[in-house]
Amino acid sequence: MKKLKIYLDASAIGYLDEQSDPKGMNEMLSLWDLIKQGKYDVTISDITLDEINANKNTEKVDVLFNYLAEITYNTITVDEQVDMIADLVKINKLLISDKHQNDRLHIGCAIVAECDILVSYNFKHLVNVRTIKGVRGIASLSGYSSIDIMTPAMFVEEGDS
Fold first, then answer.
1. Potential cystine with 11: which of 56, 75, 119, 121 (Cβ 3.0-4.6 Å)?
2. How far apart are CA 90 and CA 104, in angstroms?
3. How far is the C-alpha of 9 from the C-alpha of 6, rounded, in Å?
4. Which residues pair with 74 in a beta bridge?
């Protein structure tokens, strides 16, 4: 059986050191252990790296990049295909505000990289039924494989069965 390919957005990676939410942090650390064991192929994007670098807490930035150094991952950069998917997300009335551009790009990157799952803690914009269903439809209509959006907890539970 082939390994699942997962895309990590900055919110997921940020939870590796989210002291304000110990439960969420432990969920992400559990997923991280599975990633370090090589159970999943990981993709991140230049958007993810930019968002991590933009954190004003330089200690947290260092901690997160130390975590990233522990794993092997592929990096996808924004290109015309990613932009096209991001535009489709907006055209289909998902995440229409300009402030959601990075969220649309995360979706585009995950779809173009042919990831099975986009892992996120962004409940407001990504991990909700409306966005999940819309993104599945956009991926399918664009000729890409199906993609799910899950929190680390959902993903770890799914992977443990």
1. 121
2. 8
3. 10
4. 43
Cα 103 from chain centroid?
9
What pLDDT is recorded for position 20? 95
pTM of the model: 0.90
d(CA 113, CA 76): 7
The secondary structure element, H or E, covering residue 129 is helix 129-141
Residue with tokens 């670098």: 53
Q: Left if phi > 0, otherwise alpha if psi is -120 to 50, otherwise beta: which for 64?
A: alpha
Q: CA–CA separation, 33 vs 48, rounded Å?
A: 20
Closest CA to 41 of 1, 8, 73, 75: 73
Q: What percent of the chain has pLDDT over 70?
A: 91
Domains of the chain: 4-159 (3.40.50.1010)
Nearest in space to 50 (alpha carbons), one of 87, 101, 111? 101
List, for residues 25-84, the tens digit of each pLDDT value: 999 999 999 999 999 999 999 999 999 999 999 999 999 999 999 999 999 999 999 999
CA distance 53 to 34: 25
Residues β-bridged to residue 45: 76
